[in-house]
Amino acid sequence: MKGNSKAKSSLLYVFQVAFSGSLTLILMSVASRYLAPADLGMFVLAQLYSGIVVGIMNFGLLTGYERNFFALEGSREKVLKLTSSAVLFVANNLIILMVLVYFFQPQVADLIFHGEIVPENLFFIVIIGASASSLSHYYLTFMKNSNLSTSYVVHMISYSLLYFSMSMILMIHLELGIMSLAYAWLSSGLFLLLSLYFSIGKKSGLAVDITLLKEMLKISLPLTPRVFFGVLNTQFDKILLGMIGSASLVGVYHMGQIFSMTIFQFMTALGKVFQPELYRKLFANAHLDRPDEINQYLLPFFYISIFVALVVALFSQDFVSLFLDDEYQEATPIIIILSVYYASMFFGKVVGAKLIYAKKTYLTTVLMFIGIIINVGLNIPLIINWGIIGAAWATTISGVIMTFVGYFVARKYVRIDWDWKKVFIIFSIFLLAVTLSIVDYEMISSFYVLKLLVVFIYIVIGARLSILSFKKNKDTL
Fold first, then answer.
1. Range list of β-strands (E), 434-477
2. pLDDT (tens digit, 9 = 90+) per residue, 231-267?
3. Most exposed residue of 181, 182, 328, 352, measured as fewest CB within 10 angstroms of its CB?
4. Res 470: pLDDT
5. Nearest residue to 279 via CA among 453, 21, 59, 65
């Protein structure tokens, strides 16, 4: 792909994330005025648990699909067969799941919501929406890997607009409360799936190629435990808050997480450009022929991702004051702390790609178990003693530790020579911004001049280090 084409794709993906993220922030601002933290917390728990069971029923197939996509990239016919095989296999599993949930709704509700009064069909509706979203990811991955960035962005923006519009109408005009988010989630998820099917699914047909499916499952099955434990690891903070705390705590914590997650969403948008190219470079043995080539390619993406994290951390207090109701003001420190966690996940994306390329997916399960042990060990005492602040710190500390562990494990199989001096400088300025934000929040002060100075320093340092040199790195941005 030519440099200008990659630049266009990057801008499109970033625009989509910025647009969708803006709608989410506006929606959450309105929701904070129409939904109590307890109501929002119950919807979040429904999404969380539906994500776990839907993820299990996928058997990790999305990872195997993406990996084999590049192995078969030279044959469009085989790629289309690969897509239909993955979608039909997962769809069959999800239909069985939905039938079971339908017949056992009361029992499932008691298990998830711990006796709190919720609409009886809340979880069933949410799980249908989660299933539709899960199937859509296979078609979206096809688009991403096929460099169909415009089609990808159009579908995702349409999905975001529908979810936003329906949520607002159902919440404000029909006053459906918590169910407004559930019905909007269901409708927009089904719309996206049908739209993608008519765009891609009809071309791939409705047939399963057993050979291709087996090849995907060989890679994916070892990841099935990782899906369950992975969600448990990343969502354990909210699970535990719901168990030993309340749905209200989950609601406030989720608000903070939504704002801080814009970092990861932006990073994911960039990942739609750099991850496919990373796979191509790995398959072309770029990491062997010239170990620093991948570093030169990835460093600008890292720099921009950390810049977003820096801005979110610095101005989190202003975001919360502007967008959220008084009941949600405690979300500010959550945003600041979790910004460190989401910033570190850039390396997690690279580590994951390296292990998948090396066909060492079983190691991701082992790493996940280690991460869970650390996460649980930190979350329980920290949540008991410091509530949502403790949950944020536990998640961040365990996440950063596992980033280091994952890096050293993956390095044994695929070596990428990072320019650690530049990485250290970039991350040090970011940590300075985080520290300043925490002090600012604790002192209830306004360090606007210092915050702007940190942003200025970060930009100047990026220029001095020639990280965003378009002449030297035309294929990057």
1. none
2. 666 677 787 787 776 778 888 888 888 888 888 888 8
3. 352
4. 43
5. 65
pTM comes to: 0.71
Distance of alpha carbon 143 from alpha carbon 272, whole angstroms: 10
Orientation of helix 316-323 relative to helix 331-357, angle to 10°: 120
- In this structure, the number of other CB atoms found within 10 A of the CB of residue 381 comes to 11
CB atoms within 10 A of CB 2: 9
Q: How far apart are CA 218 and CA 204, in angstroms?
A: 22
Long-range contacts of 18-25 (CB under 8 A, 24+ apart): 18/266, 19/157, 19/160, 20/156, 20/157, 20/160, 20/265, 21/262, 21/265, 21/266, 23/160, 23/161, 23/163, 23/164, 24/160, 24/164, 24/258, 25/258, 25/259, 25/262, 25/319, 25/323
Contact status, residue 55 vs residue 234, Cβ threshold 8 Å: no
C-beta separation of 241 from 250 below 8 A: yes
372, 432 contact by CB (below 8 A):
no
Distance CA 208, CA 15 (A): 35
Question: Could you say which DSSP state residue 56 is in?
Answer: H
Q: Is the separation of the CB atoms in 185 and 163 below 8 Å?
A: yes
- The pair of structure tokens assigned to 22 is 């803006």
Distance CA 126, CA 143 (A): 26
Q: Which residue has the tokens 């099955």?
A: 221
